[in-house]
Design brief:
Blueprint lengths: L12 E2 L13 H10 L4 E4 L8 H11 L2 E12 L2 E8 L6 H27 L5 H8 L7 H10 L6 H9 L12 E2 H10 L3 E4 L9 H13 L4 E6 L4 H13 L3 E5 L43
Parallel strand pairs: 1-2, 2-3, 3-5, 6-7, 7-8
Antiparallel strand pairs: 3-4, 4-6
The structure holds adenosine monophosphate and manganese (II) ion (3 copies).
């Protein structure tokens, strides 16, 4: 049997993870190999605001006999907040998407320099160069600065680096002009993809604000909610599944894996999508060669 036309067993699908093209620890090849070894049969690589890792990931996926879904995690703004919208199964050649992401990459360069200037004043020497080395030519993200703060001994953990330096309102925080949510969704739709609202409970929105967000997300053409994340608790999944049903959204599953140092998090190791939610991969699995009826949760 064709290796991709197989039953996707529980844990066989992971539609959210990062490589060295953004703030992941593994190269696209290493990531795909790790996913295949963990039993993932269909993987979306979703680096922050870049498609740079996808070609290598595609090659590795062919070699491993697993299905790669083209993806990206776009930094968007919605009512003065930063949110993340994932595009799945996108045509990577689409001009509007490529040009839009190029603008976000320029925002990242400007913001990386602004963060570095602040960190240098706070005692971290040569921050921009060192973060660029950390990023090994990929996108510089706050995660790279967080790792630098830990390596330099200024912070004990990555979480502390965000809490005391890099998080919103902290001394090394610098804002970026992300793209309005509706425009990012528009790029994704224009590229033939499905827009997924990533980790909907991580934005600390009250019930009313979350309802407004989901309504506007859906009105703008958003298709799915990430119902199961790497660190979702059962109650979170119940809540997100109810939100998906209420707003007529499909459901997605993604670990948000960044590297083996997140020891609590494994590729493909999310709880299954509740049966009451229609999986987002019904929109693209068969076109990618995974038999529809064989795609189980
Ligand atoms: P950026 O897109 O450059 O602003 O960086 C955002 C990334 O930083 C997220 O995708 C996470 O990987 C990471 N991040 C944000 N907040 C935290 C936190 N509190 N602890 C650990 N990682 C975080
Ligand atoms: Mn990240
Ligand atoms: Mn995210
Ligand atoms: Mn992510």
């Amino acid at each position: 049997m064709d290796s991709v036309v197989e039953t996707l067993a529980c844990g066989g699908i992971d539609l959210h993870c990062h490589s060295t093209a953004s703030d992941g620890r593994l190269t696209p090849t290493q990531l795909v190999e790790a996913a295949a070894a963990a039993g993932v049969r269909m993987l979306a690589l979703t680096d922050h605001d870049t498609l740079a890792g996808l070609a290598e990931a595609q090659q590795a996926a062919r070699a491993c006999g697993i299905t790669l879904v083209t993806g990206v995690e776009i930094s968007v703004r919605w009512r003065q907040r930063t949110l993340h919208v994932i595009g799945l199964d996108i045509d990577v050649e689409t001009a509007a998407m490529r040009n839009g992401l190029a603008q976000l990459q320029e925002q990242r360069r400007l913001r990386a320099a602004a963060i570095a200037a602040k960190l240098e004043r706070l005692g971290l020497a040569d921050a921009l160069n060192r973060a660029s080395v950390q990023a090994s030519g990929g996108q510089v993200t706050r995660t790279h600065y967080a790792r630098l703060l830990v390596e330099s001994g200024m912070c004990k953990t990555i979480q502390q680096a965000f809490k005391h330096y890099l998080g919103s309102g902290q001394p090394a925080y610098a804002a970026a002009e992300w793209v309005p949510m509706a425009e990012a969704i528009h790029w994704i739709i224009g590229a033939g993809g499905s827009a997924v609202l990533a980790h909907p409970l991580r934005y600390h929105l009250g019930t009313d604000a979350r309802t407004r967000l989901l309504r506007e997300f859906r009105q703008a053409g958003g298709r799915a909610l990430e119902v199961c994340s790497g660190n979702s608790r059962d109650a979170d999944i119940v809540l997100c599944a109810a939100d998906a049903r209420r707003h007529q959204l499909l459901g997605s599953v993604g670990s948000d894996f960044h590297g083996p140092e997140q020891r609590w998090l494994k590729l493909g190791a999310m709880p299954p999508l509740p049966a009451s939610v229609t999986p987002v991969w019904t929109r693209f699995a068969s076109a990618l060669g995974v038999a529809h009826e064989q795609v189980i949760r």
